[in-house]
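lol forgot to send this yesterday, sorry. struct tokens for the thing we talked abt
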């Protein structure tokens, strides 16, 4: 604890006696889940059972099993991934999960991305390499047509001598020692195509003119000729941080046979085991190209390109490699990237989901980082999952879920939240609140490492985690955080998202911008979209209190209109915002106009799109595009900032002021955002529910006007489970207003009911006196932790224990009991506010022998009923801190804990 004094503040209530509303009944998926790492699969059945019982008792709802790197010195305990012994452990977990009410998912690889020792070179990720030669008419090429792949090795562990390694890599022993991230062996690469282009525009396919020895049998016709030789290479990406038995090549994500062969390996093993209680499979973020170069090729690319784009890419290799005229370079590159997006969607993501569905399982997918339209990739699976701390980024996963009507959008929560051992439960809660605001409703912590019961402290750890394990002192209060998340998710998993606006994702502008390579990876909004109308629109709508979802071209062309509203496959929206962009598919643009013609209002933020995307039939498509544009005639509206074009039954709106455009289109905003309050809104069977949090640095106390109609409202406090009807009234404009109070970082759930509700008002309290310090002699006892339990001390106030004299206090990580006897302060009121001040870092409060609350932070106060304080009282506060003090002590004393491959 940090604050010198703990205060009691006398409060007066604003409540009336009557019956209270009720919280939803919790189910397993309301509770937070966690990524459950198995280092080296060093597990036993008793150890797994003991761990799972602790997880259940801590309030977790399930785990995702993720096998990772092993532990040095414990190689004899390794269990190879998917071996019979491993499957015995896996099925034991499934059975125990059923017994304990814990759900189980499985990462579809040991490490990430998909790959392993059973991936053959034909199915491994590949890259494209090229060479250029020039010839004049009458000349023949004397140089050999060849490309030698240069050796490369990128280990996380010990650096091997590449000349001593076997190719393919899976044939080598002791791969845990190297923890290879990428490896390429020196070898000649197979020729894919040799194309010749003359200065007069002639094209010749010379691939068949090359002998097996690499000699080109061809004499250049008159003119100047440029030859492009394209060779298939191996990207060499290895499964990152793989566990024993999982080391090997990453698959080719653009190849149907590659994913089919990969999944057949699981089929061949799972057929002999009962895995019915497994909920689903998980795919981690696309990190194939977190390496040197890019995996930018697949065997069938040329034929798939012809099928999808309608022309032969081999005829345009100079443009693909950005050596032609600028516009052609952009258009051909866009077509290549669109094809890659199609392939990863159809050949990988969709096939993986279909495979899982044949087993009755779900898929949970982190599409971010993929070289394709991640809105479509997220939508092709059952549970889109995001990660990060940028609200505009997080909304890609929830948008895909909302637009397509999925129940869950999940998150990998608290990854790299702070430096190791410095993240508190309060920090995690604030991070999770941001996910909720982004529309996420299924939290997965990152995460929890399995550790044997007899493993010395701190046990097994994962390098990119907040270490939510029983060895962490914060584990004692972890249940308090989990209850908070469970209560929020019990509401946010009901019904459907209630957003008014669709924001078009102009992916083709990124497809046309070469950037750093042939592939464009879509991950964070920054920096690629910084300063663009798309980013500006998203930021503006968040700031102004508009609910919106992103939409892709594929999702948009499948959207219908009815009664002037946009009906996607899973939701209904009031308008579409098309931010200013250079390129748009003509099919998308024509469908937008079709929707407008049928009665929809569409907003063009800035100008109309400038041109159509792609190279195929560009002249014809451009002419059609221009004919569509020529039918759009904007004229001033009754709002000087809005230009309007009536078009069929609907209208097109244009301008640079998005708020004015949305207002003109009849889209309301939630003005609570003007007061620093952020929200997410959903419709459920009772009406509309809001999750509201105060992201500002000042307390809010006042009336909030809502855009959701209803006859009454109730407040549910997820931090302490209090609930009650909200004070509500109708504004002059007829909208519902509710009275709210929120301190910084405080959150509430607000349920709007279509029918009138009767019950007790939610209790907001007003202080009626100045704070009264809890005075007395404090006993400070060290009850759990280490490296040793320091001697008890007495203090005039609840001081931080590191302020006590002696190294044992500075080094201590664990739980400390602060206790004091005190007399009831003088005063009259309805309740007392127990304010602990700043706590480092979580607290468990007991008053007069009765446990009151787990307080995980970031706020450390609790409202006491007036009858809970007696004339003489005993207060006990058990405070748990971070692991950092003890880890620092271990480092200073040379005690090893970084024992992982």
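and heres what i got for the seq, position by position
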């Amino acid at each position: 604890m940090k604050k010198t004094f703990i205060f009691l503040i006398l409060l007066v209530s604003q409540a009336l006696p009557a019956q209270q509303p009720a919280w939803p009944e919790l189910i397993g998926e309301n509770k937070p889940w966690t990524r459950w790492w198995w280092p080296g699969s060093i597990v036993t059945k008793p150890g797994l059972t003991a761990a799972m019982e602790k997880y259940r008792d801590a309030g977790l709802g399930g785990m995702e099993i993720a096998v990772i790197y092993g532990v040095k010195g414990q190689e004899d305990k390794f269990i190879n991934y998917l071996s019979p012994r491993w499957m015995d452990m896996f099925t034991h977990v499934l059975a125990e999960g059923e017994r304990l009410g814990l759900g189980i998912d499985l990462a579809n690889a040991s490490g990430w991305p998909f790959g392993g020792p059973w991936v053959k070179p034909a199915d491994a990720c590949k890259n494209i390499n090229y060479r250029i030669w020039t010839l004049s008419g009458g000349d023949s090429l004397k140089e050999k047509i060849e490309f030698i792949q240069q050796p490369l090795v990128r280990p996380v562990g010990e650096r091997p001598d590449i000349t001593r390694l076997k190719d393919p890599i899976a044939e080598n022993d002791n791969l845990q020692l190297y923890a290879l991230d990428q490896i390429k062996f020196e070898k000649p690469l197979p020729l894919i195509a040799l194309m010749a282009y003359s200065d007069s525009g002639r094209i010749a396919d010379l691939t068949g003119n090359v002998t097996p020895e690499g000699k080109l049998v061809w004499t250049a016709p008159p003119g100047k000729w440029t030859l492009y030789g394209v060779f298939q290479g191996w990207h060499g990406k290895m499964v990152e941080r793989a566990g024993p038995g999982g080391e090997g090549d990453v698959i080719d994500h653009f190849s149907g046979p590659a994913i089919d062969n990969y999944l057949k390996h699981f089929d061949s093993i799972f057929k002999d085991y009962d895995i019915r209680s497994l909920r689903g499979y998980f795919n981690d973020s696309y990190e194939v190209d977190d390496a040197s170069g890019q995996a930018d090729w697949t065997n069938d690319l040329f034929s798939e390109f012809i099928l999808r784009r309608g022309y032969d890419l081999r005829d345009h290799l100079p443009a693909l490699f950005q050596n032609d005229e600028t516009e052609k370079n952009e258009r051909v590159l866009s077509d290549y990237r669109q094809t890659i997006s199609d392939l990863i969607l159809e050949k990988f993501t969709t096939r993986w989901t279909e495979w899982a569905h044949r087993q009755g399982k779900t898929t949970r997918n982190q599409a971010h980082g993929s070289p394709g339209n991640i809105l479509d990739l997220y939508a092709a699976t059952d549970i889109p999952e995001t990660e990060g701390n940028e609200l505009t980024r997080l909304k890609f996963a929830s948008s895909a879920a909302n637009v397509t009507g999925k129940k869950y959008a999940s998150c990998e929560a608290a990854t790299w939240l702070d430096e190791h051992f410095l993240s508190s439960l309060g920090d995690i809660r604030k991070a999770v609140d941001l996910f909720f605001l982004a529309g996420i409703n299924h939290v997965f912590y990152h995460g929890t490492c399995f550790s044997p019961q007899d493993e010395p402290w701190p046990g097994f750890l994962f390098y990119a985690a907040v270490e939510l394990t029983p060895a962490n002192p914060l584990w004692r209060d972890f249940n308090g955080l989990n209850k908070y998340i469970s209560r929020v998710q019990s509401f946010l998993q009901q019904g459907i998202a209630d957003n008014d606006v669709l924001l078009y994702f102009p992916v083709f502008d990124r497809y046309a911008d070469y950037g750093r390579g042939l592939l464009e990876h879509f991950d964070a909004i920054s920096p690629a979209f910084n300063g663009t109308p798309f980013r500006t629109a998203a930021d503006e709508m968040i700031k102004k209190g508009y609910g919106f979802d992103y939409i892709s071209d594929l999702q948009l062309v499948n959207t219908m209109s009815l009664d002037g509203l946009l009906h996607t496959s899973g939701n209904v929206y009031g308008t579409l915002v098309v931010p200013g962009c250079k390129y748009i598919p003509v099919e998308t643009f024509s469908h937008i106009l079709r929707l407008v013609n049928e009665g929809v209002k569409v907003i063009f933020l800035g100008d109309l799109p400038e041109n159509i995307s792609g190279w195929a039939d560009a002249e014809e498509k451009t002419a059609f595009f221009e004919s569509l544009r020529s039918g759009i005639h904007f004229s001033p509206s009754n709002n000087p900032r809005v230009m309007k074009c009536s078009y069929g039954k609907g209208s097109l709106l244009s301008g640079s002021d998005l708020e004015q455009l949305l207002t003109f289109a009849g889209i309301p905003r939630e003005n609570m955002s003007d007061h620093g309050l952020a929200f997410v809104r959903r419709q459920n069977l009772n009406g509309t529910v809001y999750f509201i949090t105060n992201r500002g640095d000042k307390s809010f106390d006042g009336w909030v006007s809502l855009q959701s109609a209803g006859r009454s409202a109730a407040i549910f406090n997820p931090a302490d489970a209090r609930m009650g009807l909200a004070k509500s009234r109708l504004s002059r404009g007829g909208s519902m207003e509710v009275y709210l109070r929120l301190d910084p970082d405080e959150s509430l759930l607000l349920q709007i009911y279509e029918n009138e509700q009767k019950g007790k008002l939610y209790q907001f309290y007003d202080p009626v006196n100045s704070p009264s310090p809890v005075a007395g002699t404090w006993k400070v006892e060290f009850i759990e932790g280490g490296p040793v339990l320091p001697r008890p001390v007495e203090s005039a106030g609840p001081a931080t224990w590191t302020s006590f004299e002696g190294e044992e206090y500075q080094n201590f990580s664990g739980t400390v009991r602060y206790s004091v006897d005190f007399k009831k302060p003088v005063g009259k009121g309805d309740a007392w506010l127990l304010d602990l001040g700043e706590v480092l870092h979580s607290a468990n409060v007991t008053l007069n022998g009765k446990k009151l609350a787990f307080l995980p932070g970031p706020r450390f106060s609790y409202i006491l009923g007036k009858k809970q304080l007696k004339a003489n009282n005993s207060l006990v506060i058990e405070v748990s801190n971070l692991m950092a003090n003890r880890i620092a002590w271990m480092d200073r004393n040379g005690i090893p804990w970084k024992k992982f491959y």
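DSSP finds 19 helices and 50 strands in the chain. anyway ping me if u want another try
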